[in-house]
TrEMBL record:
This is Aldehyde dehydrogenase. PROSITE patterns: ALDEHYDE_DEHYDR_GLU. The keyword Zinc does not apply. Residues 32-477 form the Aldehyde dehydrogenase domain. It comes from Streptomyces paromomycinus (Streptomyces rimosus subsp. paromomycinus).
Length: 478
């Protein structure tokens, strides 16, 4: 199938990153093969090209990495905060210097549009390191006592939707507080974490302070269960989060979980429609909808439903799906065949349960994993597409008449991560923010992130906060 939006490699951009044919694990400051010699391939989801072969860490490697982190902890935690800050500032600057290379790498391995990795992911990654570098010598003023202590070795497991940004959310506060780290990136997106390991070396970070173990879920499970890990930080699915909570239960490990979401983006009849449409599109189609806080349910006030949906469909018809390295692309590739199958299954369930499916005409590339931006109307609260996290470019539309009904519907899922409110009335925004059971409430905007803002959920979206002063608490003995 060919179309104006078909995948066509952009060799110029691709050339800015030099991907080696194989990578080892990063343990104690060195790249090393896995003890068992196992490897796996990482592919570009846009064309299924094998990008590299990466080591699969087993239990012996987890042991080595935790040992290295434990050894490094002694000196790292004893450094004055201002000294740790110097390393973090250096890392932040190196990320900025290498941001073009890292953005292309991230788009290749993940499938996200280069415009997003270049303008959102990478600036935020650097901003997180700058922000937490600033805290490293001010921990005594963070509200956790005059001399708060780090926890020790942090075992961190991250997903594939924002590989480098999730790494930054985990590693920057951990190091600022004086902890050392063993981090496992997701199996489908290991490369940017390995490039980050190289940046740690470039920054002269002491050996063992950051260790990267590539591997699958079994590596993550071994890491979080390791008895010498003091802190577990996980971002990913609610199902795996629950399994990790069971593993950690009964130990003295400190745990934070950042899990799924099913956010409501709530549009009142006094909202500026064009602005709301942009917010809805950004809310659900940013990063192909692979966003835990995605505005995957649109709640629209009945009186403006027709006008809003007509404008939304017109806007969706302009979205370009295709080559992640093309600067004009709005929606890139779905991260993996498994994720595409999940999205397809849930969208099909939406149809079979009676909702009406609509997508703009849009030809998709032959190779790779793709899903057209999709809208469901006539959705009821009981439908699976109104309850389950789809984690793809699929929007479920429900309606409401009163603010009370909007709140009741917004809160009616197992999740509680984020929500959006679109209205001209300031008093209504405040009223809604109080009533919504969501860790983050945006008003007249969506998907806005800042390292100074705490991020985290209620209910099955997890617990603990990342970002801001609150994010320090997860890495301190308070
Ligand atoms: P998960 O399976 O939860 O994977 C997240 C991370 O945990 C990955 O690094 C994964 O490794 C690792 N992992 C898997 N099983 C583990 C275990 N038993 N113990 C410790 N670590 C383990 O998520 P996924 O498969 O990538 O996506 C599944 C669904 O999760 C998605 O459809 C979406 O709904 C949700 N999700 C949510 C988020 C956020 S930010 N809330 C992010 C990603 C996915 P491997 O990648 O190697 O399996």
């Amino acid at each position: 199938m060919s179309s104006a939006f078909a995948y066509a490699p952009a060799p110029e951009s691709r050339a800015v990153v030099d991907i080696a044919p194989s990578y080892g694990l990063f343990i104690d400051g060195e790249f090393t093969e896995a003890a068992g010699g196992k490897v796996f391939k990482t592919v570009s989801p846009a064309n299924e090209e094998v990008l590299s072969e990466v080591a699969q860490a087993g239990s012996e490697d987890v042991e080595r990495a935790v040992k290295a982190a434990r050894k490094a902890f002694e000196k790292w935690s004893a450094l004055p905060g201002a000294e740790r800050a110097k390393y973090l500032f250096r890392i932040a600057r190196l990320i900025q210097e290498r941001s073009r290379e890292l953005a292309v790498l991230e788009s290749l391995d993940n499938g996200k549009p280069i415009r997003e990795s270049r303008d959102s992911d990478l600036p935020l990654v650097a901003a997180h390191f700058f922000y937490y570098a600033g805290w490293a010598d001010k921990l005594g003023h963070a509200g956790y006592g005059a001399d708060p202590k780090p926890l020790g070795v942090a075992g961190q497991v991250i997903p594939w939707n924002f590989p480098l940004l999730m790494l930054a959310w985990k590693i920057a506060p951990a190091l600022a507080c004086g902890n050392t780290v063993v981090l496992k990136p997701a199996e489908t997106t290991p490369l940017s974490a390995l490039f980050f390991a190289d940046i740690c070396r470039q920054a002269g970070l002491p050996k063992g302070v950051v260790n990267i173990l590539t591997g699958d879920g079994s590596t993550g499970a071994e890491l979080v269960a390791h008895p010498d890990v003091n802190k577990v930080a996980f971002t990913g699915s609610t199902e795996v989060g629950k399994a990790i909570a069971r593993t950690v239960a009964g130990t003295d490990k400190k745990l934070t979980l950042e899990l799924g979401g099913k956010a409501a983006n709530i549009v009142f009849d006094d909202a500026p429609i064009d602005q709301a449409v942009e917010g809805i599109v950004n809310g659900i189609f940013f990063n192909q909808g692979h966003v835990c806080c995605a505005g995957s349910r649109l709640l629209v006030q009945e009186s403006v439903q027709d006008e809003l949906l007509a404008a939304l469909k017109r806007r969706m018809s302009t979205l370009r799906v295709g080559d992640p390295l093309d600067k004009n692309t709005d929606i890139g590739a779905i991260n993996s065949a498994e994720q595409l199958a999940r999205i397809t299954e849930l969208a099909d369930a939406g149809e079979s349960e009676g909702a009406e499916r609509w997508a703009p005409s849009c030809e998709l590339p032959d190779a790779g994993y793709w899903f057209a931006p999709t809208l469901f109307t006539g959705v009821t609260q009981a439908h699976r597409i109104a309850q389950e996290e789809i984690f793809g470019p699929v929007l479920s539309v429900l309606t409401f008449r009163t603010p009370e009904e909007a709140v009741a519907k917004a809160n009616n899922t197992p999740y509680g991560l984020s929500a959006g409110v679109w209205t001209e009335k300031g008093s209504r925004i405040l009223w809604m923010a109080n009533k919504l059971r969501a860790g983050i409430v945006w008003s007249n905007t969506f998907n806005k992130f800042d390292p100074a803002s705490p991020f985290g959920g209620y209910k099955e979206s997890g617990f603990g906060r990342e970002g801001g002063r609150h994010g320090l608490e997860a890495y301190l003995d308070v």
